[in-house]
Amino acid sequence: MRTVLIFGGSRGLGAAMVRRFSRAGDRVFFTFLKAEEAAEALSRETGAQALRADVTNGEQVREAVELVNGKTGGIDILICNAGVSLNRMIADTEDEAYRRVMDTNLYGTFAAIRAALPGMFWRRKGCILTVSSIFGQEGASCEAVYSASKAAVIGLTQAAAKEAAGAGVRVNCIAPGMMDTEMNGNLTAEEKREITEEIPLGRMGTPEDAAECAFFLASDAAAYITGQVIPVNGGWRM
């Protein structure tokens, strides 16, 4: 039985990952911040254990990692999924909004990796998955800060993969395209239709699409894959 810790697991892509790994018989822990009811419901559904943690707080991230390590003997799979979006032009972006996005998306990922790596190094095994975005690969108008944070996640992933490889730890990144999640709930039906027409596979992605990619990357079938960015975007190019 593998031990999985998912930061940002109560909704959307994270919840689908909790379900996928739990269904496989893994021992799953996931964090949430504000969505307590959703986290409790997911915990009852899957048997996964919910932990409250703010990923912008390095101490809370470290405590979550130490708790899971202490209960299980070591984290096998770490997934850094916690994130927030920001749809705003650069000229209209306040410092507070900028920091919130960067602290959550980039620092939160960094803090989780930093906390988990020592235990993985000591055990000389482990898998870390980060979550970027197609916007982190190509950038998007009115999504500059979000795009920058997700681009930085890619750089962090590739650097961490090089640092960790000698200890047998793999680090990869999933880059979802347009996903049918709450984060894109502000899109109108017409906007969704227009985007879908541009996607070669003819549909928006689902949380389950991303979860299946994560499950593969965490498996022995991906034992020779590290430092890679895997697009889950239906062939969409912006």
Helical percent range? 40-55%
Q: Would you report the number of β strands?
A: 7
Question: What is the H level of CATH, i.e. the homologous superfamily?
Answer: NAD(P)-binding Rossmann-like Domain
- Give the mean pLDDT: 94
Radius of gyration: 17 Å
Strand content: 15-25%
Low-pLDDT sequence parts: none
CATH topology: Rossmann fold
Shape: globular
Helix and strand element order: EHEHEHEHEHHEHHE
Class derived from helix and strand content:
alpha/beta
Annotated CATH architecture: 3-Layer(aba) Sandwich
Spatial order of the strands forming the largest sheet: 3-2-1-4-5-6-7
How many domains is the backbone divided into?
1
Helix count? 8
Biggest beta-sheet profile: 7 strands, parallel
Write down the CATH class: Alpha Beta
Distance between the ends: 40 Å
